[in-house]
Design a protein that fits this description.
148 residues; alpha+beta; six-stranded antiparallel β-sheet; 4 helices; 6 strands
C-alpha cells in the first residue's frame, strides 16, 4: 500500500526529531484522506493518569490534557484497544472538540506492554472509517512505538 511506504519514509528519516515526524505523519494523513478532519497525537504525561496533546493538524482544541477514562481518548488510555466511533453523539462519554465532528477513531501506541499514547482522528462524516483505515492506523502505531 502506497500510504504505508510514505509513512515509513517519514518514520525512517534520520534527520527529524520525533515531534517533527509525528507532525509530518499528521499532515500526510490529512492530505491523503478527505474524511480525516482532525489528526493528532496524545501522549501519557509521565506517571500521571492523563494524556497531553502532541503534534496535530486541524482546528485548535481546548482538550490539551485529558484524564484517563474521560472521552474516547481517555477510554483508549484505559482499555488499550482501538475505539472506532461511527457517531460521536451516541457516546455518553464523548468530549466534543467541534460541533462538526461526527465520527472518531483512536488507536493506542503500545510500547513494552504499556500505553504511551495514541493517534486520534476526527471526521466530519458519519461512519467513514473502514477496516483498511483501522489496520493501517494500527500498523502505524506499532511502527511509531518502535522509534519512541
Amino acid at each position: 500500500m502506497e500510504i504505508k511506504k510514505r509513512l515509513s519514509s517519514i518514520l525512517e528519516s534520520p534527520s527529524n526529531h520525533i515531534d517533527e515526524k509525528l507532525l509530518k505523519i499528521c499532515q500526510l494523513l490529512d492530505q491523503e484522506y478527505s474524511y480525516f478532519n482532525w489528526t493528532g497525537f496524545y501522549f501519557r504525561n509521565g506517571d500521571k493518569e492523563e494524556l497531553v496533546l502532541g503534534p496535530y493538524v486541524g482546528a485548535a482544541t481546548d482538550h490539551t490534557v485529558i484524564p484517563f477514562g474521560k472521552g474516547i481518548c481517555g477510554q483508549v488510555a484505559v482499555s488499550n484497544e482501538t475505539f472506532v466511533v461511527p457517531d460521536v453523539w451516541e457516546q455518553d462519554n464523548y468530549l466534543a472538540c467541534s460541533l462538526d465532528t461526527k465520527a472518531e477513531i483512536v488507536v493506542p501506541i503500545i510500547k513494552d506492554g504499556k500505553n504511551i499514547g495514541q493517534i486520534d482522528i476526527d471526521s466530519h462524516t458519519h461512519n467513514p472509517f473502514t477496516a483498511e483505515d483501522r489496520k493501517m492506523l494500527e500498523w502505524l502505531c506499532e511502527e511509531i512505538a518502535k522509534i519512541m
